[in-house]
From TrEMBL:
<keyword id="KW-0132">Cell division</keyword>
<dbReference type="InterPro" id="IPR004101">
    <property type="entry name" value="Mur_ligase_C"/>
</dbReference>
<keyword id="KW-0067">ATP-binding</keyword>
<feature type="domain" description="Mur ligase central">
    <location>
        <begin position="106"/>
        <end position="294"/>
    </location>
</feature>
<feature type="domain" description="Mur ligase C-terminal">
    <location>
        <begin position="330"/>
        <end position="440"/>
    </location>
</feature>
<keyword id="KW-0133">Cell shape</keyword>
<protein>
    <recommendedName>
        <fullName>UDP-N-acetylmuramoyl-tripeptide--D-alanyl-D-alanine ligase</fullName>
        <ecNumber>6.3.2.10</ecNumber>
    </recommendedName>
</protein>
<dbReference type="GO" id="GO:0008766">
    <property type="term" value="F:UDP-N-acetylmuramoylalanyl-D-glutamyl-2,6-diaminopimelate-D-alanyl-D-alanine ligase activity"/>
</dbReference>
<keyword id="KW-0963">Cytoplasm</keyword>
<comment type="similarity">
    <text>Belongs to the MurCDEF family. MurF subfamily.</text>
</comment>
<keyword id="KW-0547">Nucleotide-binding</keyword>
<dbReference type="GO" id="GO:0005737">
    <property type="term" value="C:cytoplasm"/>
</dbReference>
<dbReference type="GO" id="GO:0005524">
    <property type="term" value="F:ATP binding"/>
</dbReference>
<dbReference type="GO" id="GO:0051301">
    <property type="term" value="P:cell division"/>
</dbReference>
<keyword id="KW-0436">Ligase</keyword>
<dbReference type="GO" id="GO:0047480">
    <property type="term" value="F:UDP-N-acetylmuramoyl-tripeptide-D-alanyl-D-alanine ligase activity"/>
</dbReference>
<comment type="pathway">
    <text>Cell wall biogenesis; peptidoglycan biosynthesis.</text>
</comment>
Length: 467
């Protein structure tokens, strides 16, 4: 099915189509562009107009541009607009307007990508489902996801993120969800916010985009749950809460055994059991919230539970692997994609619960925490999980605070960079170890993960932790 014709795209963006073309997808990256995609020439680190010729050489169906790049043939298929970013947003709004899909939007300080994928796994068994790719959740990721949505979509899952105040509400208004979920609120991006409560208000602004009669799904266990409820009331939304303190979706218990999380919950007086093929109590919370959101969309509860049981995490967000090392193997918990104090505590708890002779953590700086950064890093030393972890190796200037706060028996190596730590791996790792790697993306903990893989040949098994 054609996604956009030249006429439709021109009408949606108030642009001028050059040529009579049709496209089946939308792309912003010539490295991954496919034949018959519409290439969107955004201005980011580099001006996308520099890559239009390359996109067309790769058989892109057309390019969305604000001017005609030099050197293009006169019959090049184009959509000419005043502003490419604004046109992408217009295209997203038009895609949203023409579909009858039931839409859910997800935000939160931790777990939004995993929860989005859980919802996609649940809903994909019950109708044609469209979801954000990876973590496409910002000012271009949300409209790009919407612009890619086929007109016959039945369920859509849109992830919405932020770094600064005022970013979520405009994206939510583009998505126009029938259900909006906040996974949790935690100390993240504190450089841009005065407090965690201020972060809660920004997360709660997702409810401003709800369709009339919409449903707000909120975490009842967080300190600022009332902030979320008040925002839902202001949006005239129905509120469903999830968690150990919730009435509607009440979490009764969570059990961890190996790579399996088994949870019991009460919904409308009915006790249910759901399983997640990944270890972590935080997954139980996200899964329960996702069940609430799916059900609010009209999905069947039991089919959703079955779908949830098929979910596994993304690379770098808690994937569990067995890696060969000299003399044997180790278990790797690759949670290297990102970190804040809440997700770091959750990952360390998963490591602590794992069974093995030694549990080893490689942790990197958690960024954007503002004046509280040193205290938040040092505070990790007080977590119960630290008691069962053999060694904590620290990477980065901020993690120096944790290194200094750790008991001497737990204090491992400290390096300024991940590359320096990777060079030390042979002397820090033993056969049979269970190893966690986690830190903010800019710290490059993936270099430590790659170093572990280079010590031997990996054998795959997938499971987790998360962000």
């Amino acid at each position: 099915m054609t996604l956009w014709t030249a006429t439709e795209a021109a009408a949606a963006t108030n642009g001028r189509a050059i040529g009579d073309w049709a496209v089946n997808g939308v792309s912003i990256d010539t490295r991954t562009i496919e034949a018959d995609d519409l290439f969107v020439a955004l201005k980011a680190a580099r001006d996308g107009h520099e890559f239009v010729a390359q996109a067309l050489e790769k058989r892109a169906g057309a390019a969305l541009v604000s001017h005609i790049p030099n050197g293009l043939p006169g019959d090049a298929p184009l959509l000419l607009v005043d502003d490419v970013q604004a046109a992408l947003e217009d295209l997203g709004r038009a895609a949203r307007a023409r579909t009858e899909a039931r839409v859910v939007a997800v935000t939160g300080s931790v777990g939004k990508t995993s929860t989005k994928e859980m919802l996609a796994a649940m809903l994909g068994r019950q109708g044609k489902t469209h979801a954000s790719v990876a973590s496409y959740n910002n000012h271009w990721g949300v409209p790009l996801t919407l612009a890619r949505m086929p007109r016959d979509t039945e369920f859509a899952v849109i992830e919405i993120g932020m770094n600064h105040p005022g970013e979520i509400a405009p994206l939510a208004k583009q998505a126009r969800p029938h259900v909006a979920m906040v996974t949790t609120v935690a100390a993240a991006h504190l450089e841009a916010f005065e407090s965690v409560t201020a972060i809660a208000r920004e997360k709660a602004s997702i409810f401003e985009g709800l369709e009339p009669g919409g449903v707000a799904v909120v975490n009842a266990d967080i300190d600022d749950a009332q902030v979320l409820r008040d925002a839902a009331d202001a949006a005239q939304a129905e509120t469903l809460s999830f968690g150990t303190k919730a009435r509607e979706y009440h979490l009764l218990s969570v059990g961890l055994e190996g790579d399996l999380t088994t949870s019991h919950a009460q919904i409308d007086g009915q006790e249910i059991t759901f399983e997640i093929q990944s270890a972590g109590a935080h997954f139980a919370m996200n899964g329960l919230g996702a069940l609430a959101a799916a059900r609010a969309l009209g999905a069947d509860l039991h089919a959703s539970i079955e779908g949830l049981g098929t979910w596994t995490p993304f690379k770098g967000r808690g994937v569990r692997e067995t890696l060969a090392v000299p003399g044997g193997s180790i278990e790797l918990l690759d949670d290297s994609y990102n970190a804040n104090p809440t997700s770091m505590a959750a990952a360390l708890a998963v490591l602590a619960a794992a069974k093995g002779p030694r549990r080893i953590a490689f942790v990197g700086d958690m960024k954007e925490l503002g004046p509280q950064a040193d205290a938040l890093h040092a505070g990790l030393a007080d977590l119960d999980a630290i008691n069962t972890i053999a060694q904590v190796h620290c990477i980065g200037p901020l993690m120096q605070a944790l290194h200094d706060a750790l008991p001497k028996g737990k204090r491992g190596a400290w390096t300024e960079t991940s590359a320096e730590m990777a060079a030390k791996l042979p002397e820090l790792i033993q056969t049979g170890d269970i190893v966690l790697a986690k830190g903010s993306l800019s710290m490059g903990l993936a270099r430590v993960v790659d170093g572990l893989r280079e010590m031997g040949q990996g054998a795959g098994s997938q499971e987790n932790t998360d962000e």
